[in-house]
Amino acid sequence: MKNLRNMRLHMVSLGCAKNRVDSEKILAILQQQGCTITDNPEEADCLLVNSCGFIDAAKRETIDTILSLAEIKKTRPGAKLAVMGCMVERYKAELQSDIPEIDYLLAISDESTKEVYRTDNIKRITQPGVVSAYLKIAEGCGNACSFCSIPAIRGPLKSRPPEAVVAEAKELLAVGIRELVLVAQDTTRYGADLRKKNGLVELLKELGNLKELQEGWLRVMYLYPTLITDAMIEMIASGPPFTPYIDVPFQHYDDAVLKRMGRQETSADIRSLMKRIREKMPHGAIRTSFIVGFPGETEKQFNNLLEFVKEARFDHVGVFTYSSEEGTGAAAFADDVPEKVKEKRRDQLMKAQNAISKKKNKEKLGKTFDALVERYDEENRLLIGRLTTQAPEVDGETILDDCEAAPGEIIKVAVTGAMDYDLIAHPV
User: Fold this and answer.
1) Which H helix or E strand runs over 397?
2) What confidence category does residue 264 fall into, taking pLDDT thresholds of 50, 70 and 90?
3) Are residues 236 and 294 in the same domain?
């Protein structure tokens, strides 16, 4: 793809928020080199997929997307199909042999993609009208969870220079972004490889002091449990622009399962952390995620987790069924929990959390909160927003009834309706 000038490019970005940041940087680089970005794949000269290869479902989605675009490519003589990202890093040879329609395979470690993943690269293209943006503060991971393939795909922790993170934040705020959502595979380790003792706290201070952010929100995701310090909790709980929201993926609660998962925390550590968070942030939200059906998980161990979820009353929970990933430590374990049992346990856990979420939402009735007006839903002719306790994409939303505010505004609302996950509110 040497001659990019006047090339029309259509891109599909798959996977996590961190991948989306990469995609926005890819688009900025290609546009700078003369590409025209199009939303219509049927008019594109190049069809580009930024792939995800994390779990089975993501791999299937990637393959389905590639094959779908390959069909479109057949109708456009001369069009090229390119695939990059995590799936290519893991399965480049297999993709090359199994899907000959692919013209270019670009792995994360290739020389051709180094500009995208350069830690000081701050240029990116966000979607028009978007008021919330992810800000990636590190690449790779320094943990050794037995179920996770990310360190093998993305390598060890590589923190971005704080000046690059701040510069990118300013660029995003300058184009109308009102909420910055900090992401990394593990945000708590930020700066460890740069010999910074309190790297995340220092970065949060710097970002929190940006004058451009004083009327906006700053949210932190993916905090590893055993590395969350009181200073981190206090910073997040200190008030605007920080949203009172802790995202801490516990993955399980039973000690034996946690040990097999390669996690550093115990059930006692989890309880202690929950107490610390709620003492310092009593009106904030805690989000977590769990894996059910991990190799060797007994009914009793699952019930330990289920009872903990009922007791802990998390604000938001995500539940995943275990998927064996080649090259990980857990891949050597016998995957001895049948798929139907995994799905049953996931449904049980989500049913318990559903009741908790609904009750917590009802507790908000009649109370006043800040809400970020996010978008206008044309199909239902409604404004949609979020409270500080609702993260983009993964949590419920707030329907703004009888509201004339514009996307990007942060307004006071009173909650008038509560559903399982979503809320209804009126401007105050």
Assistant:
1) none
2) very high
3) yes
Average pLDDT over residues 10-32: 93
pLDDT at 40 over 60: yes
Across all residues in the chain, what is the average pLDDT? 94
Cα 191 to Cα 120: distance, rounded to the nearest angstrom: 14
b/e burial code for range 349-383 (CB count within 10 A of at least 16 → b): bbebbeebbeebbeebeeeebbbbbbbeeeeeeeb
Does one domain contain both 129 and 27?
Answer: no
Q: Tell whether pTM > 0.85.
A: yes
Total number of domains constituting the chain: 3
Q: What is the pLDDT of residues 370-383, one digit of tens each?
A: 999 999 988 888 99
Range of the domain at 236: 118-362
Domain membership of residue 38 (yes or no) is yes
Query: Six-digit token pair at 81?
Result: 């199909």
pLDDT value at residue 223:
97
Helix (H) or strand (E) holding 212: none
8 Å CB contact between 140 and 86? no
pLDDT in the model for residue 3: 59
Whether 2 is in a domain gets the answer: no
Q: 322 and 292 in contact (C-beta within 8 Å)?
A: yes
Long-range CB pairs of 313-316, under 8 A, 24+ apart, other chains included? 313/356, 313/360, 314/286, 314/287, 314/288, 314/353, 314/356, 315/285, 315/286, 315/287, 315/357, 315/360, 315/389, 315/395, 316/285, 316/286, 316/287, 316/288, 316/357, 316/391, 316/394, 316/395, 316/396
CA 269 to chain centre: 24
pLDDT > 80? residue 54 = no
Give the whole-angstrom CA distance, residue 349 versus residue 238. 32
**Which stretch of 110-114, 351-355, 418-422 has the lowest confidence by average pLDDT?**
110-114
Are 207 and 326 members of one domain?
yes
Going 386 to 390 to 391 to 393, the CA torsion angle's sign is negative
Last residue in a domain, options 99, 115, 131: 115
- Of 362, 382, 399, which one is at a domain's C-terminal end? 362
Q: Does 127 share its domain with 269?
A: yes
Report how far residue 401's alpha carbon sits from residue 384's, in angstroms, rounded to the nearest whole number.
9
Tell me if 314 sits within 8 A of 349, measured CB to CB. Answer: no
The residue count for the chain: 428
Percentage of residues in the chain having pLDDT higher than 90:
86
Do residue 207 and residue 318 come from a single domain? yes
Q: What is the pLDDT of residues 389-428, one digit of tens each?
A: 999 999 999 999 998 899 999 999 999 999 999 999 999 9
Non-local (6+) Cβ contacts of 174 within 8 A are 212
- Report the C-alpha gap between 55 and 91 in whole angstroms: 13
